[in-house]
Design a protein that fits this description.
single chain, 169 residues, globular, 7 strands
Length: 169
């Protein structure tokens, strides 16, 4: 029964994204400034995306019920762990509870810098119409890459090379 509820929630989320979030918002594209949003941690702290200027940011949207997200998250976690001095990885969870996220990460044995998007405001601002979805933002706050769907290691290295002029994974 719990699995049925997850699938119903997944379908509702997908319908919400398809109907209410425009596929392309003017100004949100590679080469444009990343919209500044307020990010919320599971423990209630807040930060603005602009607080991370000075280092590149990987803004990664995901959910615990998303199969491609589950397969990709170890790569995203590895990226954050291996390169924390060079870049910031923000894993934005889409509309789940703190308990769901913390239990999932514990079960998967993953450490991520999680931000919560409980009300879809960040997803809406970034036109997230499918997950996983990842934005690579340079140290000046400019979007350098947008990936809809899960990254493979070679694809992620290719796009990170835009930011660093070298492979970092």
């Amino acid at each position: 029964m719990k699995r049925l509820h997850k699938y119903a929630a997944m379908s509702a989320f997908t319908l919400f994204l398809a109907v209410f979030i425009p596929a392309c918002e003017e100004g949100l594209a590679v080469g444009k400034r990343a919209p500044d949003v307020t990010l919320n941690t599971p423990d209630g702290r807040t930060a603005k995306l602009s607080d991370y200027r000075g280092k590149p940011v990987v803004l990664h949207f995901w959910a615990t019920w998303c199969g491609p997200c589950i397969r990709e998250l170890p790569l995203i976690a590895e990226l954050g762990a291996r390169n924390s001095a060079e870049l910031t990885v923000l894993a934005v969870n889409c509309a789940e509870t703190d308990q769901e996220v913390s239990s999932f990460l514990a079960d998967m044995k993953l450490v991520l810098n999680v931000m919560m998007d409980r009300d879809f405001l960040i997803s809406e601002t970034y036109n997230v119409n499918a997950i996983p979805q990842t934005y690579l933002i340079d140290s000046e706050g400019i979007i350098r890459s947008i990936q809809v769907g899960a990254y493979t290691r070679p694809e992620l290295n290719r796009d990170l090379a835009i930011l660093f002029k070298k492979n970092i994974l």
